[in-house]
Write a structure and sequence with these properties.
Shape: globular
Distance between the termini: 49 Å
Strand content: under 5%
Mean pLDDT: 88
Order of helices and strands: HHHHHHHHHH
Low-confidence stretches: none
Number of domains: 1
Largest sheet: none
Number of strands: 0
Length: 215
C-alpha cells in the first residue's frame, strides 16, 4: 500500500488518533478490571508499568509495559502508513501519543511518565538509537536497581545517539530530532520527584517481587 501524501486534514486526524491511543490508561484499566483497585492509590500513584510491577507483580508490570509501548508504535504506524507522509505531522502524532499517556483525557489529564510509550514511538521512528538506549537502561538498572536512574540515563543516551545519527551522519530528519529533544526534556521533568528522592536516599529500588504492602 502506497503511503498517502499528507494534507492538513489527515495530518490532524493522525494527531487525534495518536493522542487517543496514548490516552488508554493501561495500568489503571488492569487494576480496575482484574484487581478491583485504582493503581493511583498504590505505590507511587503512577499509572505506568513500574508502579504496576510493584503493585501487582512482574507479570502484570511487563504486560502494562508492552501495551504502553504498543500504543506509541501503533500510533506512528497508523500515521505513516495510512494517513500521512509528512515528517512534521508524523513527529507531531508521535508526540501526541506520548502526551496522551502523560495527560490522558480519561483520568483528568494525570497519567504516567511517558517512557514506555516514547519507547514504542521511537521503535517505529528511530530503532537503532532506541536499541542502544535500552541496553544502557538494562545495564544501569542491573547495577543500581533504580528504574528511574536507568530511564533518565537511557533518555539522555537516546538523545545523543539521535543527534549523532541525524546531524553527524546527515540523515536530515530534523522533525525527529526536535521531537526527541522535547520528549527527553519532558521525561527528565516528569522524573523530578524521583531525582529528589534519589538525593534524599529515599528512592525505591527495583525488585521482581510484588510489594506486600499492596496485597
Amino acid at each position: 500500500m502506497t503511503t498517502p501524501t499528507c494534507s492538513f486534514q489527515p495530518g490532524i486526524l493522525a494527531i487525534v488518533i495518536a493522542y487517543l491511543l496514548g490516552s488508554i490508561p493501561t495500568g489503571w484499566l488492569v487494576g480496575k478490571l482484574f484487581f478491583g483497585k485504582d493503581i493511583r492509590q498504590s505505590g507511587s500513584g503512577n499509572i505506568g508499568a513500574t508502579n504496576a510491577l510493584r503493585t501487582y507483580g512482574s507479570g502484570v508490570g511487563f504486560g502494562v509495559l508492552i501495551f504502553d509501548m504498543l500504543k506509541g508504535l501503533v500510533a506512528v504506524f497508523i500515521a505513516r502508513k495510512y494517513l500521512c507522509a509528512d515528517q512534521n505531522f508524523i513527529a507531531a502524532a508521535a508526540l501526541f501519543a506520548i502526551l496522551g499517556h502523560v495527560f490522558p483525557v480519561w483520568l483528568g489529564f494525570k497519567g504516567g511518565k511517558g517512557v514506555a510509550t516514547a519507547a514504542g514511538v521511537f521503535a517505529g521512528m528511530s530503532p537503532l538509537p532506541l536499541v542502544i538506549s535500552l541496553i544502557v537502561f538494562v545495564i544501569i538498572v542491573f547495577i543500581t536497581r533504580y528504574i528511574s536512574v536507568g530511564s533518565l540515563l537511557a533518555a539522555v543516551c537516546f538523545h545523543f545517539t539521535t543527534v549523532f545519527q541525524q546531524v553527524i551522519l546527515n540523515t536530515g530528519n530534523f522533525a525527529l530530532l526536535f521531537l526527541v529533544t522535547l520528549v527527553v526534556l519532558m521525561i527528565i521533568f516528569k522524573h523530578s520527584a524521583n531525582l529528589e528522592r534519589l538525593l534524599l536516599g529515599r528512592e525505591n529500588r527495583f525488585s521482581f517481587k510484588r510489594n506486600k504492602d499492596q496485597n
